[in-house]
Each structure stands twice: as C-alpha cells, then as structure tokens.
Amino acid sequence: MALLTIRNLSLGYDSRAIVENLNFSVHAGDYFCIVGENGSGKTTLMKTLLHLQEPVSGQILIGDGLKKNEIGYLPQQTMVQKDFPASVREIVLSGCQGRCGLRPFYNREEKRLAEENMERMGISALRERCYRELSGGQQQRVLLARALCATRKILLLDEPVSGLDPKMTAEMYALIADLNREGITIIMISHDIAAAVRYASHILHIGANAFYGTKDAYLKSNAGKLFLMQQKGGEA
Amino acid sequence: MFDKLGMYLQYPFVQYALIVGVLIALCSSLLGVTLVLKRFSLIGDGLSHVAFGAMAVAAVLNLTNEMLLMLPITIISAILLLRTGQNAKIKGDAAVAMISVGALAFGYLIMNIFSTSSNLSGDVCSTLFGSTSILTLTPKEVWLCTILSIVVVILFILFYNKIFAVTFDENFSRAAGTNTNGYNLLIAIVIAVIIVLAMNLAGSLLVSALVIFPALSAMRLFRSFKMVTVCAAVLSVLCAFLGIIISILAGTPVGSTIVAVDIAAFAVCYLAGMITGGVRK
Questions:
Q1: ipTM value for the complex
Q2: Multiple choice CATH, B2-273, 1.10.3470.10, 1.20.1270.20, 3.90.230.10, 1.10.1040.10
Q3: What DSSP string describes B178-204?
Q4: For chain A, what percent of residues have pLDDT higher than 90?
Q5: In this complex, which of A71, A78, A87 lies closest to B223 when CB atoms are compared?
C-alpha cells in the first residue's frame, strides 16, 4: 500500500485544468521529485496534495495509516515572514499546532518535540534568535524543523533551495538526504533537474514530455535524454 | 498640579474615562501586531469609517445605545474585508478605500439631511476625533466597554498560539489542519469590536493609531512575538493613561493627546531600537 496514490488527477484554477490525468503513487521511504518548467503546475500540484485547493477532478488517496494532517510542509518563504518578529523557538513550536486541535496551549511533549527537532536541524543555539535576522540557509532549517514537528513520515518541500547560495544549497540537499535515510518520505518540487537526478529515487516530470517512474527509467526516457543532452551541451 | 489632578480624580466621569481608556488601549494593542504583519494596517482605518457611518445612522434613528447598531455593521464589514482579501475581484487595499470613503461620505450625508441637532459640525467633529465622548460615558456604557474588553483579552489569550501560527504562515497552518478561515473570521470580529470600542476613546479618524502605533513601537525593541505583544500592550496602556491625564490637566482633546503620546513613544522606541540594534550587531 502506498502512502499517497494519485488517480486521474486534473488540477488548475476555477475548474480550468492546467495539468490533466496525473497518475502516480508515493511509497514509504521514497525520495520523490516533481520537476517541470515554470508554469507547468508544480506548485498547484503541491497545493492540491496538501488539500489547500480542490482538484478539478480525480482522487488523492492516502494509505499506510497516514492522516491527512500528518504531512510536513516546507513552503516557499512569503513576504510577510521577511520582517516577522518571532523567535526560532516560537516558529518551530508552531509546527505542533496540528496536534493541538482545539487545545489552546502546547503541552510538555510538544515542547520537547520542538527542542528535539531544533537539535536535529542543528539550530538549538539559535533558539532565542529572531527569525528575520537569520541567513537564508538558517531560515530554511527553522522551517524544516517546524515541518518535522508536524510529521514523522512524510515531508513536502517546495523549492527548498531557492534563493540559497551554492554552499547552503549543497548543505540543504545533504540535510534532506539524511532525513530520507532516517526513513522520512520526501516529496520535493524543484526546477533543479540536476539535483533531482542526483538525489531522487522517483521522478515525476510534468508539462511537456511528461514522465513518471524511477530515476533510472527517467534517464532513459525522452525527457531525461533531452535533459542529459542539454547538460552535455552546456559542458561542451 | 497634583492637587488639581487629585481633585479631578474624585469625579466619577474621570474615573470612568481612565478605566475604559486603559481597557480599550489594552485590547486595541493586542491585535495590532497581527494587523501590521498581515499588511492589514489600513483595515482598522477603513473599519472605523464604517463605524462612523453606522453611528450616523444610529443617531438619525434616535437609538439610545448606538453601539448596538455599530457593532454588527462593523463586524459584517470586517468579515467582508478580510475574507475578500485573498482572492477577490477588487483587491484588498482598493476594497478598503472604497468602503471606508463610501461610509464616511454616506454617514456625513445622512447626518446633514436628517439631523435635528443644532450643532451639527460639533457632533461630526466629536465623532471623528472623539473629543468628548470618553468623558460623557454613562455607567451602562462603562460596563459594556469593560465586558467587551475582558472578552477580547480572554479570546486573545486562548487563541494566542493559533493567531501566531495563522499570522506567520497561513498555508502551513491550513496544511496542518488548522481552520484558518475560522481564525481569520475570529480576528475580523475581534478587530471590529475593538474599533467600535476604541472610537469612544479616539474618534473614528484616530482610532487606527491606537491599533498600529504600540505594535510598531514594540517591533522596534523586541524580537519574539510574545515579547512584542506584551510590550505593545504595556506601551499602549501607559500611553493611554498618560494621554488621558495630560488631556485633563491641559484641557486638550483626549483622542489626539493619546495619539500624540503614542507617537512620542514610537520615536523613543525607534531610537532605542537603533541603539540596541547597533550594539547587538
């Protein structure tokens, strides 16, 4: 049984589909990468998977005992957050909100979970620091720690390295790969096909040259070959 | 000077003004941080104009308790403004401008046509700038203000964590199963209540200053949401208290005096923030 099974999914806005008939499934332990050109519907797919927006048609089935609210989400940063006065601890703790339900305050276990995840992301020393004063890479670690508070099983990452310099990008990918090795299923949206090919176990390419399958199959497919050719072209 | 102050403090209307003023200042500062951060600063202003329009209607209808009409109308407008903020055909700031200017014009128009008062411009002026209303509160109004203030504070404390989460990252909250629409609705209603309450203190044109300034001042000084909120509340209460005392002693209008004190506090905080910020980096 898969964690997520997508059947005949069409997505878009105002019942106008921009992507049609998607079929794929994500299994526990996968490193699943969604790639495609700008405007091909990557973010729309992510939002639909998170139930932030309704699909035009089709089904999203969840299995393996995964609950709808147990998906950790690393969104792209918004303008609001750029000058938000909040400490790292407050933000990480807010990842536990799904566990609270209607209970107004966080309990001891949730506070411990937040501490654990700050430790795991190596940001414990920053816990009282203000979010807006951190570097881009540190901010992503904070948001990743928050996402980990919301889930033990599956993370959805929306362009996790956008705006990071090459060194931080490499660190971020290494961190994500570590989490995947610890057993957390990763779904990552990226337009960085090189990284997708390097780290992912499965690839979904949406837009022109649509493809879904394992990484090895992707490299042999038309979309993959096109990409490889471009890379060689770039090197030559 | 202190004799004079002591003498004034004997009068019940001064005591009422202080109690209500402090409570209103406390409430209005609480959601200021959220409003500023969500880029909703202008909504407070827009709502106060709506409340002015509602008050004009209430005055024309000769209602004994104007708040009973102002509250629901303002709450409905707040819900409409905040709900349509996300994906409306008319975008947020334009909608706010439309509703607020419309309500202001409409309010003044019907006051002019139907009012039987001999001192129309005086009435309008006191509604816009709140010049005397805080000093003419009846015990009933004091009770109403007190109860509403306490409800607002309790709601804020109970939902503090959720309000923080929804303000910081609405999409994440929604993905985590938080009912963000519900909380946005709650925020809208509470803002409307605060605006209507605070109109007594500062009048409809100055009301958003009570909401915005303490939050902005606190954001200069502190770096966590909790400290910013606490600091905004303390600052707001101090400024309101000081403002009321000064206005009584100096005979200045209450609302604008409080706002002037708020502005002075902002200037101090701005400088202090620059100094400590410079040291920290």
A1: 0.84
A2: 1.10.3470.10
A3: --HHHHHHHHHHHHHHHHHHHHHHHHH
A4: 11
A5: A87
